[in-house]
Amino acid sequence: MANSWVRSTVEVPLHLVASSFRYLKRYRYIRLRKTCTMIVFSPIVSNRLTYIVEFTLGELTRQPVMLTSDVTAFIAYDGPAINYSPAKLRDLELRITPHTLLFESGIHHQETEISHWHEQPVFFQGDGDVPFDVFAACFYLLSRYEEYLPHKKDLYGRYPHTESLAFKNGFLDKPLINYWLKDLASLLKERFTDIIPKEQVFAFLPTYDIDEAFSFRYKGCFRNTAGFLRELFTGNFGRSGQRLQVLTGSKPDPYDSFEHLNQLHERYHLKPLYFFLLASRIGQYDKNTDPAGKAMQALLRTHAAKYRTGIHPSWQSGDVPSLLKEEIDLLQEVTGKPVTLSRQHFLRFTLPGGYRRLLEAGILEDHSMGYGMVNGFRASVAMPFYWYDLENETTTDLRLFPFCYMDANSFYELKHSPAEALEEMRHYYSTVKNVNGLLITLWHNTFLGSDPRFKGWREVYEDFLKLVTNR
Description:
This protein is α/β, with parallel strands linked by helices. The protein is built from 16 helices and 15 strands. The strands form four sheets. The protein has a five-stranded parallel β-sheet. A four-stranded parallel β-sheet has the order 2-1-3-4. α3 links the parallel β1 (about 40) and β2 (about 65-70). α3 crosses α5 (about 135-140) and α15 runs parallel beside α16 (about 455-470). It starts with a helix and ends with a helix.
């Protein structure tokens, strides 16, 4: 299950549930001779609270965490203690005044008036030692609560960034939850000297979406002929000439950047992820190389042997759910490896149905948590987290890895030059490094080959890799 941190750390059949004082006392003296547990009191122990306490405190401390509704046990305990209630219960505690969100069921409009704490935006204000309900605010952002509320979808049927609290209040470009947890950790260390902090280390994960492995090669006679004629009729003679040069073997395919990427990964000691689009039929948004062809299958096998690879579910699979399983099965058959990673093509998904389909298909790790029009932190966090199914009120086994930068957003939507794109990437690098988070970038092989449309982007990407790896 997703909540294995508590079980594996505590090593007793106690999983963030209300506990009796007798059990707590026995636990203290038998299990805690060499380490100290943190206790959290709440008058109500809900699934929502359990989920967010595990996430937040699991990121801050190596200590086992006990969540209880037993006031006597909480008052008697002599270790680090968080009081999640309206009233002070003991002298030495960290009190967080609860908002109603974590005790509710269903999905309702929430008031999210913004104030500031340590120069960072906060909402769900309270009068505790932390001036807002950090648990409820984190839950609101991680669960993507706002995406369940009524909103107008964008051109592709997606939740638009313009509807988000982060965009409306100017914090889309920062991992706000990481900042909150950093400040909460400092407060806990000041209050409790026996806290055992969990060391946070900056990490970088490059990822690639392979929408079109090749521009001209291996596209077949019909597609190349149709493309050539279309280019002639529209006056795009430069591209038609390029197509002929590639097909006659005098020039490499402009999208074929795979060997170049291999060299970069070896040079900078990187372990990337690749997501392959394998639609069996070509469509308006699915223009991949034929997955049944020998060249494409050889590419899949080569990458699966060296890197972690996942499925890039086609646009069509969003309309015909059975296609998702077919595409996963094909990738597994070709590579001989189980497929548990995904990222949606065009980042096309809605909650909760999109994530439920992934779980039903055996996907356990998804990398779609980002926007398709602008860069930033969709869930306001730079670390992975498990998806909480709001409608079913349960923590799932689907782990989400949010990215904050995509080349296509910078090029197509923001109209950035390569130099401007590098500045934007530097911002996200410095921001995530400042909170020791996980920096995930999304690039396409098309930007990193030899296509004249993307001149300069290949060089900018290597400059960025030098920066991130300090080489």
